[in-house]
């Protein structure tokens, strides 16, 4: 079945929201780019599921109990496209995977990259900004000379945000739960989804999405077909017969994505990670600058954290070039 452009799998699975009252950088960027936003739907009762045998509890939260968050019209892809459009043509090279970074005695850096057609490419530069998650850098890029043990440990100690998670999205003809006075928000102790939210766009279809309480290794053992059957059963328990036949049921498990997760990421996070800049006291200091949301001491894991780390990295490079003028 053909579904509206907004519901392309990538757009829904990259669904993001932000909080203008707490996150000024992403808020300013969205305004600068002229992107449309709308308030995340939270009106109505939330559902609490203690177990599959207990009755579903329905609660109306006091006004102001849920902080207002905002979503982008067209999903986060609209932000990606708008930022990319500001860059000079040819700046972004797709299907180019950096596998090795070498530095010679004069301090010149050479990047070795694999291209999609099997060819290799070399890029020479003076400084590199790495926006990859720290653990992906440690696992997938070779350095000559090698990174210090202290720096490697620092990289590995920063879990990639949500890398061990998975998301399911159910798409419907309309957000029927709103007609029943429900917000679409659910907290469940029986699962498989432990947290569900309304993912409906500002116009058109309805959608619900949820994060899993099942650990990554258990999901992988069950397999996608069985996981989605459990999700479908849970949505029917929670929202009734209207939830039985979604237009589409999408699933993405980032723990199985080698470009997102490493083995360590399958261990569930018990507390929020201690993010911040990787500790660097090696020959690579000021030659490799780490960016990405996991390197932001504030708002790590959020779009806000990614933008703050990008600003920091850009200022570091500008300072380096001033030193050499």
Description of the molecule:
Pfam families: Amino_oxidase. This is Flavin monoamine oxidase family protein. Belongs to the flavin monoamine oxidase family. InterPro entries: Amino_oxidase, FAD/NAD-bd_sf, Flavin_MAO. It comes from Lentibacillus juripiscarius. By secondary structure, the protein is of the alpha+beta class. Helices cover 27% and strands 24% of the residues. The chain is built from nine helices and 16 strands. The strands form four sheets. The chain has a seven-stranded mixed sheet with strand order 4-3-12-13-14-11-15. Strands 8-7-6-10 form a four-stranded mixed sheet. It is elongated and about 70 Å long. It starts with 8 loop residues before the first helix and ends with a helix. Mean pLDDT is 90; it is low at 1-13.
Q: Tell me the strand percentage band.
A: 15-25%
Structural class: alpha+beta
Tell me the span between the first and last alpha carbons: 59 Å
Helix residue percentage = 25-40%
The profile of the biggest β sheet is: 7 strands, mixed
User: What does the average pLDDT come to?
Assistant: 90
Q: What are the segments in which pLDDT stays under 50 over at least 5 consecutive residues?
A: 1-13
Oligomer: single chain
Globular, elongated, flat, extended or rod-shaped: what is the shape? elongated
Strand and helix order: HEHEEEEHEEEEHEHEHEEEHHEEH
Largest sheet: spatial strand order: 4-3-12-13-14-11-15
Radius of gyration of CA atoms, rounded to a whole number: 22 Å
Q: Tell me the total number of β-strands.
A: 16
């Amino acid at each position: 079945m053909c579904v509206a452009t907004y519901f392309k799998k990538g757009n829904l699975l990259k669904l993001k929201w932000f909080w203008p009252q707490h996150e000024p950088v992403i808020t300013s960027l969205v305004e600068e780019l002229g992107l449309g936003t709308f308030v995340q739907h939270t009106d109505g009762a939330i559902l609490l599921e203690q177990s599959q045998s207990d009755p579903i509890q329905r609660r109306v939260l006091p006004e102001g109990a849920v902080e207002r968050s905002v979503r982008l019209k067209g999903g986060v892809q609209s932000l990606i496209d708008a930022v990319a459009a500001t860059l000079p043509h040819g700046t972004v090279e797709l299907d180019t995977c950096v596998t090795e970074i070498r530095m010679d005695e004069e301090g010149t850096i050479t990047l070795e990259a694999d291209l999609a057609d099997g060819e290799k490419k070399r890029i020479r530069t003076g400084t590199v900004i790495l926006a990859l998650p720290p653990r992906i850098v440690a696992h997938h890029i070779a350095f000559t000379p090698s990174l210090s043990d202290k720096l490697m440990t620092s990289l590995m100690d920063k879990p990639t945000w949500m890398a061990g998670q998975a998301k399911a999205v159910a798409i419907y003809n309309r957000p029927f739960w709103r007609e029943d006075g429900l917000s679409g928000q659910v907290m469940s102790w029986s699962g498989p989804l432990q947290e569900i939210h309304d993912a409906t766009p500002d116009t058109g279809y309805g959608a619900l999405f949820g994060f899993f309480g099942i650990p990554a290794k258990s999901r992988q053992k069950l397999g996608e077909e069985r996981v989605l059957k459990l999700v479908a059963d849970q949505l029917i328990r929670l929202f009734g017969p209207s939830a039985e036949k979604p237009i589409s049921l999408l699933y993405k498990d980032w723990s199985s994505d080698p470009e997102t997760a490493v083995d360590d990421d399958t261990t569930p996070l018990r507390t929020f990670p201690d993010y911040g800049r990787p500790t660097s006291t090696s020959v690579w200091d000021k030659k490799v600058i780490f960016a990405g949301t996991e390197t932001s001491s504030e708002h790590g894991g959020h779009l806000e954290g990614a933008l703050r780390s990008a600003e920091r990295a850009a200022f570091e490079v500008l300072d380096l070039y001033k030193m050499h003028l």
